Amino acid sequence: MRSHFLLLTSAFLLTATISTIDLASANADTSPLDIVISGGRVMDPESGLDSVRNVGIRDGKIVAITENGLEGKQTINARGLAVAPGFIDLHEHGQEPRNYEFQAHDGVTTSLELERGVANVDSWYAQREGKSLINYGASVGHIPVRMAIMHDPGTFLPVGDAARRAATAEEVEQIRAAIAKGLQQGALAVGMGINYTSAASHAEIVEVFKVAAAYHASVHVHLRYAGMKEPTSGLAAIEEVIAAAASTGALLHVVHITSMGLKDTPRLIAMVEGARARGLDVTTEAYPYPAGSTAIDSAVFDPGWQEAQGITYKDLQWAQTGERLTAETFEKYRKQGGIVIIFSIPESAVREALANPTIMVASDGMPITGPKVHPRGQGTFCRVLGHYVREEKVLDLMTALRKMTLLPAQRLEKRAPVFQNKGRIRVGADADITLFNPDTVIDKATFEDPLQFSAGISYVLVNGVPVVRDGAIVSGVFPGRGARAPMSR
Question: What pLDDT does 369 receive?
Answer without folding.
Answer: 84
